[in-house]
Automatic annotation (TrEMBL):
Listed InterPro entries: BTB-POZ/Galectin-3-binding (IPR051481), BTB/POZ_dom (IPR000210), SKP1/BTB/POZ_sf (IPR011333), TLDc_dom (IPR006571)
UniProt-recorded name of the protein: Uncharacterized protein
Upper taxonomic lineage: Eukaryota, Fungi, Fungi incertae sedis, Mucoromycota, Glomeromycotina
Pfam families attached to this UniProt entry: BTB (PF00651), TLD (PF07534)
Gene3D superfamilies per the UniProt record, alphabetical: 1.25.40.420, Potassium Channel Kv1.1, Chain A
CDD domains, per database record: BTB_POZ_ZBTB_KLHL-like
Alphabetical list of PROSITE patterns matching this protein: BTB (PS50097), TLDC (PS51886)
SUPFAM superfamilies in alphabetical order: POZ domain
């Protein structure tokens, strides 16, 4: 029979760190006025980190009066204290630290080669400090790019910038972005920007880097040579054939002196000679980035949902003009069918849209609540709606039913901890079995059975961009 007293062991090692009994390591952390002397035990540090095993080896070690001496000017005393406490007792608390401090901590643990913390801190930043990327996208990208172990954070940054490029391209520091990073971004097929916007931003970056005006009529021969050299690596990455004719003429052709002449010839031929057979090795168009974390519907329904929310029933949004993001809050197969789980995940989240798959059927049903799900009782709104799809794999106007709440009705949305997403006379309570009374005074003209068994349903927060 074995017993585990890990908490007691952790506390004892933390006390050892704090009391400093028998220490044989002196660490000078920080620089100038912020230097602090920290005491530790070499056997514990070596057991927990390859960095310290190397630092205290015969080749590296510096000793004074029998104690190892280590100077780390680039790591603050506060961060070193956090790291050492983790090495001693296996505990770390990040929630009270600001995003930039957590990032500096990640850099420090990477230098000290503490692999478990590298993964853990990256996950924390991705889950809890996403605003950090919005505050300083250029700086964050450059920091993450310099550390090859920050793989998760690097992928997260790239994916988020590709999804919302304006975070980076509209920032004040974009013009200072290093060329290799800009090249990596322009290579991406999922960079969600119009190609002409990418070209405009590339020129802005180039002209600023070279300190040259953007007026071609005022360029000298030296200016043209500088710009050509600066743009050379990027020109193959621009999908010029995806730029509209008018934009090509006014925003690309006017810079013909800095572009390869064969490219200009081919582009002119492409726009002027419609029946001409064009090259087959053209770079692919960039993907239209629509993101929806759903097991029930494809991202191509996002324009439809956004159009219904803004009552654009006949003229739907283009994929590039969608004013909303849809963030998954609740999935019944993952989070539970019970109403407590629904309210725990969806209350106080504002507007939501939900979608449910009917068991043994091709039908989908769903609804939009522009208010919220917290509270107790009926809520009135003129903007809520229910919808149904006869075939979730073949969605068309003929198989789609949409119904806004009847004007003046006070039974648009019902909120109660014992019920899930009840709207009008469609409701459920702690079960896969839902009821639809079909009374036309609430949401008329829907194609929904009166008794339905739900296979799975999902709820998405509707966030205005």
């Amino acid at each position: 029979m074995s017993s585990k007293f890990l908490a007691e062991l952790s506390n004892d090692y933390e006390k050892l760190f704090e009391t400093e009994i028998g220490y044989d390591v002196i660490i000078y952390a920080g620089e100038e006025q912020n230097v602090k002397e920290i005491h530790a035990h070499s056997n514990i540090l070596c057991a927990r980190s390859q960095y310290f095993r190397t630092a205290f080896s015969n080749e590296w070690a510096k000793k004074e009066n029998g104690k190892f001496i280590l100077r780390k000017q680039n790591i603050s005393p506060h961060l070193f204290d956090i790291i050492l406490r983790f090495l001693y007792c296996g505990n770390i608390e990040l929630k009270n630290l600001q995003g930039p401090v957590v990032l500096n901590l990640l850099i420090a643990v990477d230098e000290l080669n503490i692999h478990s913390l590298i993964t853990y801190i990256q996950e924390y930043l991705i889950e809890h400090q996403t605003e950090l990327l919005h505050q300083n996208p250029t700086g964050i990208l450059e920091i993450v790019y310099q550390h090859e172990t920050f793989t998760d954070l690097w992928n997260f940054c790239l994916e988020n910038i590709c999804e919302e490029p304006k975070v980076l391209f509209n920032s004040d520091n974009f013009i200072n972005l290093k060329a290799p990073l800009l090249e990596l971004l322009l290579k991406r097929d999922d960079l969600y920007m119009d190609e002409i916007e990418i070209w405009d931003n590339l020129l802005k970056w180039c002209f600023t880097q070279q300190n040259i005006m953007n007026d071609p009529t005022k360029w000298s021969k030296d200016d043209i040579i500088k710009i050509e050299r600066s743009l050379h690596r990027f020109i193959p990455l621009i999908r010029f054939y995806d730029i509209k004719p008018t934009e090509f003429f006014y925003k690309v052709y006017c810079y013909k002196d800095i572009l390869p002449q064969d490219l200009i010839h081919d582009l002119l031929e492409f726009h002027i000679v419609p029946d001409k057979k064009h090259k087959t090795n053209l770079p692919p168009s960039r993907k239209q980035y629509l993101k929806l974390d759903s097991n029930l519907v494809e991202p191509n329904l996002i324009p439809l949902f956004a159009s219904w929310i803004n009552r654009k029933e006949s003229s739907y949004y283009d994929k590039k003009d969608i004013p909303y993001k849809f963030k998954l809050l609740h999935r019944s197969n993952r989070d539970g069918i019970d109403t407590k789980s629904f309210h725990r995940n969806c209350d106080d989240k504002g507007a939501t849209i939900w979608i449910a798959k009917i068991k043994n059927s091709t039908k989908l049903v769903g609804g939009y609540n522009p208010l919220d799900w917290n509270g107790d009782g009926w809520k009135n709104t003129s903007d809520s709606f229910l919808f149904s799809f006869a075939d979730w794999k073949n969605i068309s106007n003929a198989t789609t039913k949409l119904s806004y709440i009847n004007s003046g009705k006070t039974w648009a949305v019902y909120c109660n901890n014992n019920f899930g997403p009840q709207m009008g006379d469609l409701y459920y309570s702690n079960s896969n079995n839902w009821t639809y009374l079909g009374q036309s005074e609430y949401y008329p003209n829907l194609d929904i059975p009166k008794i339905i068994t739900i296979l799975d349903y999902e709820v998405f927060q509707v966030i205005k961009k």
